[in-house]
Sequence to fold (150 residues):
Amino acid sequence: MKVRDFMITKVYTVKPSNTVKELVNILNSNQIGGVPVVDDQDHLIGMVSDGDVLRYLSPKPIGFAGLVYVLEGGEFTQVLREKLDTQVKDIMTKRRVLSVSPDEEFERTIQLLSQHRYKKLPVVNGVGRVIGVLSRGDLINNISNKIVLS
Fold:
């Protein structure tokens, strides 16, 4: 079996210039946990996940002064609003972004997802364009439907 047999071809992507607010809206409205970050030619340049968003938005107290905006609810909300205007390029994963080709073997993909503890892998064609996404949930669903139930 190949990646093309399991991948999702309706791919949501973001550009590095998109804001965190736009990203959150995409993740929430499509009930997904992450998306590839692509350039204007749809070439993969990074990944960004709900975990990246939460780590970025999480308060980072530095001594007593850093706790002030956490304790004063209104100020924390303002800080949160300001952080939502940040561009995706500032929070995305840029290094060691793994991807697979549509012709990759099923077994290799399972190894990559489990070994690196990734939730999603972008699927790229021969010229580096994102053409699909493969997630752990997709694999489990397809294993159940195509192998266990057959």
